[in-house]
Specification:
Layout lengths: L2 E5 L5 H9 L6 E6 L2 H8 L7 E5 L11 E6 L10 H14 E12 L7 E8 L5 E9 L4 E8 L7 E8 L3 H10 L2 E7 L13 E8 L2
Parallel strand pairs: 1-2, 1-4, 2-3, 4-5
Antiparallel strand pairs: 5-11, 6-7, 7-8, 8-9, 10-11
């Protein structure tokens, strides 16, 4: 069995997948998230006693280690507001990671070097349908947008969001600052080869000592 920490656990979707892949492992899993609404959904899923959740900002606090695995789902890392917060997160991960442990980051790589705007219908983790708009500013490495809730209970409530993304070389450099070295990088979770055309990366970092 191993000790696992998920950053930005949300509704526990990835925790459920982990348990389905390792049903008899006895792994201890802790998930941290800043959203009380998301954690409420996760806590209602009747996970085994080996799974627990805590509310908090993963760039400012983490549960006590050591953890064998720390992972962060698709693009969740980019919810941190700036590079300082990202450094805070990575430094804390390095502190709670076992010497033989690994940090896994799953993130997008915007290929366009030009500003762009998109609009689409999306289904949120809560099952709600929303109209999503996004704008990519490559100079500031920010993607901003809105979610317009169209359900009758919300009317036309609009919620703004923003992410600050980092390129793989930028992530590698920050990880190296805190004693974590890139161990492997793939284009997705199926270990597809990573190339210069990849729009996504799943990167594994491990302590250098």
């Amino acid at each position: 069995s191993v000790r696992v920490l998920e950053l930005g656990v949300g509704t526990g979707r990835l925790v459920a997948q982990w348990l389905s892949l390792r049903p008899a492992s006895g792994d201890t899993i802790i998930g941290i998230d800043s959203s009380a609404a998301m954690l409420q959904i996760a806590q209602e899923k009747n996970f085994p006693a080996s799974v627990s959740f805590m509310r908090g900002d993963f760039s400012e606090q983490l549960p006590n280690g050591p953890f064998d695995v720390v992972f962060i789902g698709y693009n969740t890392l980019f919810n941190v507001p700036d590079e300082s917060a990202l450094q805070g997160c990575i430094s804390r991960v390095a502190h709670v990671l076992a010497l033989t442990g690994s940090l896994y980051i799953d993130a997008v790589i915007p290929n366009s070097t030009e500003a762009s705007t998109h609009e689409s219908m999306q289904t949120m983790a809560t099952g709600e349908e929303v109209l999503a708009t996004s704008h990519h500013d490559p100079l500031s490495q920010r993607i901003t947008g809105t979610f317009t809730h169209l359900g009758p209970e919300h009317g036309s409530q609009v919620r703004s969001w923003a992410v600050r993304y980092f390129t793989p070389p930028q992530l590698d450099a920050i990880a190296e600052q805190f004693g974590l070295a890139l161990f492997s990088r793939y284009a997705d979770g199926r270990k597809t080869a990573f190339t210069s055309d990849s729009y996504r990366h799943v990167s594994r970092y491990s302590p250098t000592v």
